[in-house]
Structure formats: structure tokens, C-alpha cells
Write a structure and sequence with these properties.
The structure is a single chain. It is built from eleven helices and ten strands. It is of the alpha+beta class and 397 residues long. The chain folds into three domains: 121 residues, Acyl-CoA dehydrogenase/oxidase, N-terminal domain (Butyryl-Coa Dehydrogenase, subunit A, domain 1); 108 residues, Butyryl-CoA Dehydrogenase, subunit A, domain 2 (Beta Barrel), CATH 2.40.110.10; 142 residues, Butyryl-CoA Dehydrogenase, subunit A, domain 3, CATH 1.20.140.10. The strands form three sheets. It has a four-stranded mixed beta sheet with strand order 1-4-5-8. It has a four-stranded antiparallel beta sheet with strand order 2-3-7-6, with no helix packed on it. Strands 9-10 form a two-stranded antiparallel ribbon. The chain binds flavin-adenine dinucleotide (FAD). The site of flavin-adenine dinucleotide has 20 residues, from strand 1, strand 3 and helix 11.
Length: 397
């Protein structure tokens, strides 16, 4: 196993870094670690649209995809390099990543017409997609989803509700999972639909997270007609599409780690520069010890994530390994947030707006935001169940 980049990959990495230097304002703190404030704050959303345009102009959206659909047929490693640099620097990337993940699914399961219709607009940065999986009674137990799709003439008619739909209020399209056959085993009667969110019968209600950001929505489908040509894969074959989507989402663990590295570096710098009781915080043995512990964990997580990427480039199965990185990433960021708020003391509880805030309220924000990181993209328990069954060969619980 050799994680070193080739000369060409190193050159690409530098090109991406230069691009980001030029793109970001000088005092850029970064979007929040899971990218959610980009979907809640109008100003950030506008910047996200600008980022999309600039990445598209470089030909960097759908880098790996075939040229005939707007891609560059670049290596998987180049895609990883691009993502890692964007996320580490806190460039808005959540909406793009959802669109690219959906594009990968369309490439895998779609018809030729669907590929021609849906992939080029993603590479041009023109459309936002949402992940339409969760419902009030279908989260970890996704197969329990109840949103109903009934065949009628040349359409399927959708009725029901989704929840926790990140960015739904900005999204154009949904990759949505619905029940098409209620009379078979739960995971056998599900179909995936590509749904135009401007269709009649769709309404939304925004949900505010405890960070104060209304980044996601409940979405209601009331007699929404979806043309049959928008079925992704085969009717009642949605479970395979869902498994593919869920497996891709597990790469979120490395996302968290790469983003956490930046916050960690800020905290270390703060400890270098800030004095308490007449000596730098960084000389306090307890603080040094706990910072070192986080450094170890981030390094372990990063190496594990890099191993998973390397395995992916070799075409090896990665589900069990990716499910190791996801819970690790969430837990490390929670521990980082706890440590950060403790080191900053009472200053660490202040919002960015306060003149007394340190690190522009970043640690307080991370503390609140990181609570979701062991839930979104599949809970830690769900990931560990996969490690136990797929990785260790243990029977299902
Ligand atoms: C910030 C954020 C963004 C999200 N964005 C989206 C999105 O864009 N699209 C989308 O579709 N969904 C989204 N989700 C939803 C997310 O996928 C679900 O929250 C997640 O899958 C968990 O489902 P649940 O909330 O229903 O919890 P539940 O599945 O009800 O779990 C509750 C608790 O029980 C535990 N549990 C459940 N089953 C088991 C089991 N078999 N073994 C052990 N423990 C178990 C869980 O680990 C958890 O601790 C988002 C969630 C968050 C927090």
C-alpha cells in the first residue's frame, strides 16, 4: 500500500490549492464542518453558487465521469484530492457533493437518456439535488419507508412525507425512495425516483437545528405525478440503489476528519499565541496532553480514510472499512469541540457576533453542530452494525 501521490497528482493538488487561495476571502473561517450552514445562510448560499460556477469553469465537477456526459474521465484519486482540499479549506461543498453522489448513482443505475439529461447540468453546476431517504419512521431502518408511489397511466403518483431533507429549500431535484409494493418483504417493494421539486403537490417546512441554522426541511408529497421515465433502476429495485447511496455517504467520515483538521490547527495556534496566568496555554501540561490526543486521533482517522480511498481506487469492497471511518470522524469532532470549548473557557460559549468571542465563535458552533455528526449519513450504531456483520462476519442482531 503506497499513499504517495504521483507527480501528476501532486501538480493537480497544487493547482487546486492555488485555485482555493484565489477563491476564498482572506479571513475565511470556512463553512461549518458538515457544511450545513451553507444551506441555511443566504449569503453563504450565494457564495456556494459562485463556487459551483468557478469549479464548473475549470471542468472539475464530475471529474471522473465520461466526457460525453460533461466529465473529464480523470482518475478517482484526482477526485479525492479535489474533495480533500476543498473540505480542508472549508469551501462550501455540501450541495455539490449531494449532486455528485446522485450523479454517480445515475451513472451506475440510469438509462442512457437519464445520463444524457441529468449529468451535464451537474457538471455545469446548474442544479442542486437532495437525498430523499429519511422519513419520520424510517431512518436507520430505511426499508420501513412509507411514502407511497402508485402507478397511474404514464406516471407514478407520490403521497407521503420525507424529513431531515438537507437543502430542500434550495434544491431542484430529489433522488427519492418510495414504496411501490406494500405486499412484499420491506426492502423488496421500494423504487427510486428522480423527482422535479417544482412539480405540483410538493410543499416544505423548514427545520431549525440547535445551531440556529434552518438547513433542512420536512417535505410533503401530495398527489405528485412523476413520469415513468424518471424511475432510476428498476421498479421495486430501489433497495440496491439505496445501498449504493448509503455506502457512498459513509465517505462522510473522512469529510469530517479533513474539515476537523482545520479547526484543530486553529485551536493549536490559539494555544500557542494566548497566555493565561502569565504563560502560554500551550505550556500547560494538561492542554498539551489533550491536544496531542486529538492529533493522534485525527492522524489515525486520516490514515484509515486514505486506506479506504486507496482500496476504492483498486476496486476493492470498502463498505465495512468506510463504516469504521464514519463513526470515528463524528466522535473525533465531538471530542475536539469539547476540548476547544474547555480551553476557551467562558469565551468559548460566545457567538461570533460577541466582541469577546474567541476564534470567532467557532468552537461553540462546532460543539453544537457536532452533536449531529454521529447521526447524519447513518448513525454510529448503524455503522457499527455493518462493521460487525460485513466486516466481522457476525450474525445480524
Ligand atoms: C444533520 C443531518 C442531516 C441529514 N440530512 C439528511 C438528508 O439530506 N436526507 C435524508 O434522507 N436524511 C437526512 N438525515 C437523516 C439521517 O439519515 C437519519 O437521522 C439517520 O439515518 C438516523 O435515523 P433517525 O433519525 O430516524 O434515528 P433512528 O434510526 O430512529 O435511531 C434512533 C437511535 O436508535 C439507534 N438505533 C436504531 N436502530 C438501531 C439498531 N438496529 N441497532 C442499534 N441501534 C439502533 C440509532 O443509532 C439512534 O441512536 C440527516 C440527519 C441529520 C442529523
Amino acid at each position: 500500500m503506497d499513499f504517495r501521490l504521483t507527480e501528476e497528482e501532486e501538480a493537480f493538488k497544487r493547482e487546486v490549492q492555488d485555485f482555493i487561495d484565489e477563491l476564498l476571502p482572506k479571513d475565511w473561517m470556512g463553512v461549518d464542518p458538515d457544511g450545513h450552514n451553507e444551506q441555511a445562510d443566504e449569503e453563504l448560499h450565494q457564495f456556494e453558487l459562485e463556487v459551483r460556477r468557478r469549479l464548473a469553469a475549470r471542468g472539475w465537477l464530475g471529474l471522473q465521469w465520461p466526457k460525453k456526459y460533461g466529465g473529464q474521465e480523470a482518475s478517482m484519486m484526482k477526485q479525492f484530492i479535489l474533495e480533500q482540499e476543498l473540505i480542508y479549506r472549508g469551501v462550501p461543498y455540501w450541495a455539490l457533493s449531494a449532486a455528485l453522489m446522485t450523479g454517480d448513482m445515475i451513472l451506475q443505475f440510469g438509462t442512457e437518456e437519464q445520463k444524457q439529461k441529468f449529468l451535464p447540468p451537474i457538471t455545469r453546476g446548474e442544479v442542486q439535488w437532495l437525498v430523499g431517504m429519511s422519513e419520520p419512521n424510517a431512518g436507520s431502518d430505511l426499508a420501513n419507508l412509507q411514502l407511497r408511489a402508485v402507478e397511474q397511466d404514464d406516471c407514478f403518483v407520490l403521497n407521503g412525507q420525507k424529513t431531515w431533507q438537507t437543502g430542500a429549500h434550495y434544491a431542484d431535484w430529489a433522488a427519492l425512495y418510495a414504496r411501490t409494493d406494500p405486499n412484499v418483504k420491506k426492502n423488496k417493494g421500494i423504487t427510486t425516483f428522480l423527482v422535479d421539486l417544482k412539480s405540483d403537490g410538493i410543499s416544505m417546512r423548514r427545520i431549525t437545528q440547535m445551531t440556529g441554522h434552518p438547513a433542512f426541511c420536512e417535505v410533503f408529497y401530495d398527489n405528485v405525478r412523476v413520469p415513468k421515465e424518471n424511475v432510476l433502476g428498476v421498479v421495486n429495485g430501489g433497495w440496491s440503489v439505496a445501498l449504493y447511496g448509503v455506502a457512498t455517504e459513509k465517505s462522510f467520515g473522512l469529510w469530517l476528519i479533513n474539515s476537523g483538521r482545520r479547526d484543530f490547527e486553529m485551536l493549536v495556534q490559539y494555544c500557542r499565541e494566548t497566555e493565561a496566568g502569565g504563560r502560554p496555554l500551550g505550556k500547560d501540561p494538561l492542554i498539551r496532553n489533550r491536544l496531542a490526543q486529538i492529533a493522534i486521533e485525527l492522524e489515525v482517522g486520516r490514515n484509515l480514510g486514505t486506506k479506504v480511498q486507496w482500496m476504492a481506487t483498486k476496486g476493492m469492497p470498502i463498505v465495512a472499512q468506510a463504516c469504521q471511518v464514519k463513526p470515528l470522524g463524528g466522535c473525533i469532532l465531538q471530542r475536539l469541540a469539547h476540548l476547544g470549548t474547555q480551553i476557551l473557557g467562558l469565551y468559548g460559549q460566545l457567538d461570533e457576533e460577541s466582541k469577546w468571542a474567541r476564534l470567532r465563535g467557532r468552537m461553540k458552533y462546532l460543539y453544537l453542530a457536532s452533536a449531529a455528526m454521529t447521526i447524519e449519513g447513518g448513525t454510529n450504531e448503524a455503522s457499527k452494525n455493518t462493521v460487525a456483520t460485513v466486516g466481522l462476519g457476525l450474525p445480524r442482531g
